[in-house]
Amino acid sequence: MVANLSAIRNDFPILQRSLPNGKPLVYLDSGASAQRPQVVIDKISEVYEQYYSNVHRGVHQLGDRVTTEMESARSRIQNFIGAEHPEEVIFTSGTTMSINLVAQAWGRHFLKAGDEIILNEMEHHANFVPWQAVAQEQGAVLKFIQLTPDGRLDLEHYQSLLSAKTRMVSVTGMSNVLGTINPVEEMARLAHEAGALFFVDGAQSVPHLPVNVVESEIDFLAFSGHKIFGPSGIGVLYGRQALLENLPPFLFGGNMISEVHLDESKWARLPARFEAGTPAITQAIALGTAIDYVTELGFDAIEEQEHHLSQYALEKLLAVPGLEIYGPQELARRGAIFSFNIAGAHPEDLATLLDRRGIAVRHGHHCTMPLHQHLQIPASVRASLCFYNTTEDIDALIEAIDFARQRLRLA
User: Fold this and answer.
1) Burial (CB count <10 Å: 0-12, 13-18, 19+), residue 58
2) DSSP designation for 279
3) One domain for residues 186 and 329
4) 66 and 52 Cβ atoms separated by less than 8 Å
5) Could you tell me how far CA 335 lies from the centroid of its own chain?
6) What is the pLDDT of residue 3?
7) pLDDT tens readout for residues 97-140
8) Keyword set for this entry (predicted)?
9) Is residue 55 in a domain?
């Protein structure tokens, strides 16, 4: 993988550009949104230039072609995540919509007063607020797994929370702030032993780690196209077929019905039941291309490169005076996400000064207010790496941090 890095970087045209200030772009914000390879950009153009139409109901050639392309993408995503049936792959607008779909459709139908949902403080708001809202509406109770001092889930405490009242456990595969890789297989097994369902927010983990929903006993999985090198505005909800078939629809309108009468309507079969309205056709097709790209690279190569980058970044960042990294420092327990603060520097000031040197990072609470409250900090700076990054990118980050420390009179 490392030997082919130059060729891989050439797949991403935006990485070849310089910023208006003349600095080369060093993109360290893939945790917010990854860049797109040329094959994905080309696929988007191909759809619009050659066969764009609406899907499923047309008998003309364009309609047939675009429907075939979209359903082919669904099948490739099914294989990518190890699902048993293509109907278990629901196209949504993204991870947030996928989680809301289950929280509302399942929660309103199956949750009752006194039932319990288990979350934790490292979750993105998208995997926190939907459960909070439906719990309040249904009278259910939220339970929170404690975090260890180094930012991992305390599994002993998790086991103590599980009970006959537990209905759902929802956890991120990888923290978007701490980089923590959570042991979803073990957690799913324990949830099922208690009779609960298990949901994984895969927004951060699916682009970087292999997943097999059957082997890991995952009941629901959500992820977004824009974080796995595909378009924005498209995402995936996986659900076990038996579970999805028992869920009522969340949105209503065209495509999700089989019959409509004046006094009642009947719902379509999967997956259409949960895909009301005209879908994001081009985005879904291009997501299939992005999945192909990742599959061709292979997770062995991706993990090797990102492990190499993480090791280098951790060593360099820890050497910066006054810099504190949040999350595990054992590489086996974390992904290539590094959130940090520097004593005496406001995160926004630091990120702004890094941008002046061409370094794209993120600052703020990263949609994890409960986690930042737990850490007793208002905000942090986050550098999130990807296989297309280089050790030279990390060197540029460290040089820019030194520049910022000098400008802020910290050095």
Assistant:
1) middle
2) -
3) no
4) yes
5) 13
6) 53
7) 999 999 999 999 999 999 999 999 999 999 999 999 999 999 99
8) Pyridoxal phosphate, Transferase
9) yes
Residues 187 and 93 in one domain: yes
Q: What is the DSSP letter of 109?
A: H
Is the pLDDT reported for residue 1 higher than 60? no
Cα–Cα distance measured from residue 258 to residue 225, given in angstroms and rounded to the nearest whole number: 29
Name the domain count of the chain.
Answer: 2
- Of 54, 160, 172, the residue nearest 121 (C-alpha): 172
- Has 386 been annotated as catalytic? no
Domain range for residue 184?
A: 42-296
For residue 363, which of 329, 353, 230 has the smallest C-alpha distance? 353
Any domain includes 92: yes
Question: CA-to-CA distance for 358 and 342, rounded, in angstroms?
Answer: 19
Residues 220 and 315 in one domain: no
Q: List Cβ neighbours of 298 (8 Å cut-off, separation of 6 or more).
A: none
> What φ, ψ does residue 342 adopt, rounded to 5°?
-120, 130
pTM of the model: 0.97
Output the pLDDT for position 357.
96
Which of 6-10, 177-181, 359-363, 378-382 has the weakest average pLDDT?
6-10
362-380 CB burial, b ≥16 within 10 A, e <16 = bbbbbbbebbbebbeeebb
- Reported as a single tens digit per residue, the pLDDT across 39-50 is 999 999 999 999
Q: Give the start-end residues of each E strand in 35-134.
A: 89-92, 116-120
Residues 6+ apart with CB under 8 A from 279: 55, 70, 91, 255
**How confident is residue 5, by pLDDT bands cut at 50, 70 and 90?**
confident
* CB atoms closer than 10 angstroms to residue 211: 21
d(CA 400, CA 395): 9
The catalytic residue among 25, 367, 398, 410 is 367
Query: Cα(first)–Cα(last) distance of the chain, in Å?
Result: 37
- Identify the helix (H) or strand (E) that includes residue 79: helix 61-81
